[in-house]
Amino acid sequence: MDLKQAQELEGRFMVQTYGRHDVLFVRGHGVRLFDHEGNEYLDMAAGIAVNALGHSDPDMIRTIRDQAWNLVHVSNFFYTRPQIELAEALVKCSFADRVFFTNSGSEANETALKFARKWARRTHGADKNQVVAFTGAFHGRSMGALSLTHKQDYRDPFQPLLTGVHFAEFNDEESASEKITDETCAVFVEPVQGEGGVVPATSLFIQRLRQLCDRHNALLVFDEVQCGLGRTGSLWAHEPYGIAPDIMTLAKPLAGGLPIGVTLVREEVAAVIEKGEHGSTFGGGPVVCAAGKLTLARVKDPQLLQQVRENGQILREALENLPGDAVQDVRGAGLLIGVELSHEVKPLIQAALNHRLVLINAGPKVIRMCPPLTISAHQIEEAVTILSRCIADVWNSH
Question: How many structural domains does the chain have?
Answer without folding.
Answer: 2
